Amino acid sequence: MSERPHHRRPATFKLDDPAVIVTDPDDSSRPSRGTVHVRPEADPSLLPVPVEAPLVPVQRRFRWGMVFWSAVGGLTLLGLGLGVTRLIEDLFARSESLGIVGLAFAIAAALALAIVIAREAFGLARLATIEKLHLRAGAVLVSDDRTESRAIVRDLLGLAHQNPHLARARAALQGHAGDIIDGADMIRLAERELMMPLDQEARRLVSSAAQRVSIVTAVSPRALFDVLFVFVASLRLIRQLALLYGGRPGALGMLRLMRHVIAHLAITGGMAASDSLIQQVLGHGIAAKLSQRLGEGVLNGLLTARLGLAAIDVTRPLPFTALPRPALADLARDLLRKRDGEG
């Protein structure tokens, strides 16, 4: 039989009693008979604070693939330019009026191409600015740098200047910015003032897109049409969220956003919904109560909502700290209530 541990009965004593001995917290020796050992607890302020390891910068290597595609693109542009030049020369040789018309078309095409390139560059620069603001704000939440936080707020105000719906929020933020001392509190204040109305609109956009996908895929007779509709709806949703948070993505910007959203989904668990949500939809028999087509539409709507939440994390200029992140379970309940009303 194992020996039962001996528990000392509660007793009162004075701190100046010679029988009371203050020991080290790491001392594991048993107290001698007739003495009372007091072990003070460790001070929380003296405990080691876990600090995230700094990210190791990725060493950029020389990319021969980029050189290849750049060279191919340059040769293609030179070939097109040479072909257009010969075409205009041939038109002038045949008729002066035809040459003038061809030259006008070439100038219009070159001007349109320059504008498109400028818009794409502006869109990529805008997305890069939003991404840097997100990273800078996350760093300020850790370092509590007041100067950097004020610089971030100035950049946010400049980013939100073109949105007329944020006029009152901008005025409130500018009025209270001088009263904030800590840098992290400044970021939280900016998030509450500027991001709250945008987050509400973003949730409405994601919920509407999920319900639209759920309805269309539930009544669609072809699986190929379902895939195409979900893809188009996802692209439209990502673009709407990027425009909402201040981005101006073009064609290249949308490719970059799609890559970041897919990478975010891969990091946070992929396209599958959370285990609790799957249990809610399938384990509790909710999908079984619906028809087969309605249940398939609900799952497609949930996947669209999951993609929209990932797009919010990618396109939002500030990380979620003072405001709650939209939850997939809340959107799922809204979607299920919508489906129950139609079923």
UniProtKB/TrEMBL annotation:
<dbReference type="Pfam" id="PF05128">
    <property type="entry name" value="DUF697"/>
</dbReference>
<keyword id="KW-0472">Membrane</keyword>
<keyword id="KW-0997">Cell inner membrane</keyword>
<feature type="transmembrane region" description="Helical">
    <location>
        <begin position="67"/>
        <end position="88"/>
    </location>
</feature>
<comment type="similarity">
    <text>Belongs to the UPF0283 family.</text>
</comment>
<protein>
    <submittedName>
        <fullName>YcjF family protein</fullName>
    </submittedName>
</protein>
<feature type="compositionally biased region" description="Basic residues">
    <location>
        <begin position="1"/>
        <end position="11"/>
    </location>
</feature>
<keyword id="KW-0812">Transmembrane</keyword>
<feature type="region of interest" description="Disordered">
    <location>
        <begin position="1"/>
        <end position="41"/>
    </location>
</feature>
<dbReference type="InterPro" id="IPR021147">
    <property type="entry name" value="DUF697"/>
</dbReference>
<keyword id="KW-1003">Cell membrane</keyword>
<dbReference type="GO" id="GO:0005886">
    <property type="term" value="C:plasma membrane"/>
</dbReference>
<keyword id="KW-1133">Transmembrane helix</keyword>
<dbReference type="InterPro" id="IPR006507">
    <property type="entry name" value="UPF0283"/>
</dbReference>
<feature type="transmembrane region" description="Helical">
    <location>
        <begin position="100"/>
        <end position="118"/>
    </location>
</feature>
